[in-house]
Amino acid sequence: MASEDFLSELRALRQLFDSIWLVSDTDGLKAQIAQLETAAAVPGLWDEPDKAQAVTSKLSQKQSTLDKLTQMQNRIDDLAVLAELAEESDDQASRDEAAAELAAIKPVLKDMEISTLMSGPYDARDAVVTIRSGAGGVDAADWAEMLLRMYLRWAERHGYPAKVLDTSYAEEAGLKSATFEVNAPYAYGRLSVEGGTHRLVRISPFDHQNRRHTSFAAVEVIPLTEATDHVDIPEAELKVDVFRSSGPGGQSVNTTDSAVRMTHLPTGIVVSMQNEKSQIQNRAAALRVLQARLLVLRRAAEDAKKRELAGDIKASWGDQMRSYVLHPYQMVKDLRTDFEVSNPTAVFDGEIDQFIDAGVRWRRQQTHQ
Question: What DSSP letter does each residue of 192-212 carry, written as one string?
């Protein structure tokens, strides 16, 4: 590599990293890590396992992000020193070492850049992916199974834990539908750009006359809901009335105002408790029931939001987002980004990062137009 070419690439690399560092807000990241470390050190945290898991998982993710940024900064600084020493000593071995390190840094930095483009409220979460066969009969069912393998191979290549949650098999071959979960930072941010209708054109292995068939499958991607079993309710959102407990026929159970009626003002949910012996006990019981009801309400709202995020995917002509052509030529082309490759076999084996990266950039452009 010519010296000037190398220095030019190194400068471009440094500029890209500087922009990633700026967007990543490392000061804010350090503050979040400090807050999470404090939360993780609270005695009795693991009395609520789901809450503890959420705190420690988020802390691990934030710390990992900061570590990657710091390590990359050190690698680029070390590379600059190595390149300078190579020129001063006119050492070809050092030049080769610097060139190899530059080549190794590029894809890592590119992956870090893609992460900075994923700033949606759900992007950092795990993902749940559902594949459904569409128009095309048995070929479509077979196509759905091919897509399932493609995404599972993609996860395997990256070392992402993936778990198939549900499969519905078609009668002759393939799948009617399949649902799987991918557990990795920004799994939803990456895979969400895969949502839509995928179209396959090939000579059907199920057609005895060897005719060309077109089949469709829908891919739906939703963020995994974060586990929580508690809802904090500000005191200002509560209206609490106390009254005398009553029994059958309206008779008073006791002579004190121990019963509690609790109203959640933002939602209008009302909970009454009078079975405990004291007002304090009835208030605590009412609060527990109110929290449970609000949790159900929140999850219902999240489900509605996830359905909105998933969209209405019909898996037929006219709404496809990517075409996979095996005959009369070999090509996979994304119809939104125009990115294409001529090696479908590699794509089916999970090499889809270039499509995902192009999709993330395309989505970013669409939201900033």
Answer: GGG-EEEEEEEE-TT-TT--E
* Burial of 202 per CB tally in 10 Å (0-12, 13-18, 19+): middle
Helices (H) and strands (E) in the chain, counts: 9, 11
What's the angle, vertex CA 120, arms to CA 114 and CA 126, rounded to 5? 80
What are the distances in angstroms from CA 138 to CA 217, 319, 321?
A: 11, 20, 21
Does residue 1 carry a pLDDT above 50? Answer: no
Helix (H) or strand (E) holding 293: helix 279-310
Whether residue 94 is contained in a domain is answered as: yes
pLDDT at 199 over 60: yes
Whole-model pTM? 0.65
**CATH number of the domain where residue 76 is located:** 1.20.58.410
Using a 10 angstrom Cβ sphere, with 0-12 exposed, 13-18 middle and 19 or more buried, the burial of residue 39 is: middle
Contacts of 279 (CB under 8 A, 6+ apart): 242, 256, 257, 258, 259, 260
Tell me which of 8 and 144 has the higher pLDDT.
144
Q: In sequence order, what are the beta bridge partners of 99?
A: none
For residue 299, what are its two tokens? 């999850």
**Residue where a domain terminates, one of 89, 116, 143:** 116
Give CA–CA dist 158/121, Å, rounded.
23
Which residues, 6 or more positions from 274, have their beta carbon under 8 angstroms from its beta carbon? 245, 246, 253, 258, 259, 260, 282
Q: What is the per-residue pLDDT across 228-255, written as a single tens digit (0 to 9) for each?
A: 445 678 889 999 988 776 544 444 555 5
Look at 14-28, 105-119, 244-258 and tell me which has the smallest mean pLDDT.
244-258
